[in-house]
Amino acid sequence: MQEICLPPNxxxxxxxxxxxxxxxxxxxxxxxxxxxxxxxxxMQEICLPPNxxxxxxxxxxxxxxxxxxxxxxxxxxxxxxxxxMQEICLPPNxxxxxxxxxxxxxxxxxxxxxxxxxxxxxxxxxMHEICLPPNxxxxxxxxMxxxxxxxxTxxxxxxxxxxxxxxxxxxICLPPNxxxxxxxxxxxxxxxxxxxxxxxxxxxxxxxxxMQEICLPPNxxNxxxxxMxxxxxxxxxxxxxxxxxxxxxxxxxxxxSLPPNxxRxxxxxMxxxxxxxxxxxxxxxxxxxxxxxxMHEICLPPNxxxxxxxxxxxxxxxxxxxxxxxxxxxxxxAxxxxxxSLPxNxxxxxxxxxxxxxxxxxxxxxxxxxxxxxxxxxMHEICLPANHDAxxxxxMxxxxxxQAAGGNEQALIYYLKA
Length: 418
Hints:
Elements lengths: L1 H4 L5 H17 L2 H18 L5 H16 L3 H18 L5 H17 L2 H18 L5 H17 L2 H18 L5 H17 L2 H18 L5 H16 L4 H17 L5 H17 L2 H18 L5 H16 L3 H18 L5 H17 L2 H18 L5 H16 L3 H10 L1
Helix pairs in contact: 2-3, 3-4, 4-5, 5-6, 6-7, 7-8, 8-9, 9-10, 10-11, 10-12, 11-12, 12-13, 13-14, 14-15, 15-16, 16-17, 17-18, 18-19, 18-20, 19-20, 20-21
InterPro entries: Sel1-like (IPR006597), TPR-like_helical_dom_sf (IPR011990), TPR_rpt (IPR019734)
Keywords: Repeat, TPR repeat
Protein name: Kinesin light chain
């Protein structure tokens, strides 16, 4: 109707197009969302003055669509255009400009450029502290984003400082047992886990779980993620019974709440398989690991490295069971995948070669063991720095093979190099 009764390129028609794009975005139809949003943008560029805040808002919408589609370069391009407009058309230290800065930081974070991500997020945080009331939830969100970036850089003390500040603000500005507060507790638990403070990690993670059980619907994936995190902490403490309990609960939730063959369900299966392997229950370890393999073969592209990692885990279980023929079969499959999917001379491929060498050594086939070990060593010498532990381990393995084959002098040469 607007296209009939209004002049061409009218701002009201442009607003309608943008709204339709927003609805398609909410429905998960990102191509249609992009189509309508780009139409809206072209119309606004004709009918509105330069650097109009509505055009800036449209650019943000387009950036969000590209971000959700995983096209971070396009997301960044539209976000930076929007920011430049906002800096012209809005007053200094405006909360909308601050939101754009944080969004740009988030895109750089997704691209793995943590220095740029930190620069934009800290600018956003300073702006939020000027333009928003004290203890505002948006400031808390900026603090959390900044904390997450520090976490990814391995600066766990700074990460903890920002995440604890965010938690204190959320405790003031949000209702009790809010899912956003629970998310902060999870993040803090993860930081303590990385710092090796398992008791504090458990305390925060269990608080988060209790909160999620109150504020989220039953079998929610965020609750399942908390269960998995708690299992991981117990695993790090060397307690294999407790993690199994939490992992199995998390798996049941994910099988209910997620679509079939989902990658997060796959992660749960992997953890459970690893725990059973650690506990020496090889039958159950194989059951869950083979289930995971079938899932990867359905939902991942051919020769994906996660499938290769799963094959290696299965090979390791068979190796521990001393079923060396099966161990070799799965390990060789994994090696073939890695040679296709990874760059040449990748350390993961070198690790696969070393695993295969260990299997041949266990079978008493020292010539094959030596061939694969030397390949692994040559690859490690290319892809890893000197004095890396993996290089030393490869040298030790070669020494062990020579010693097992009766070549003590050669063994000594490699042991001394290691």
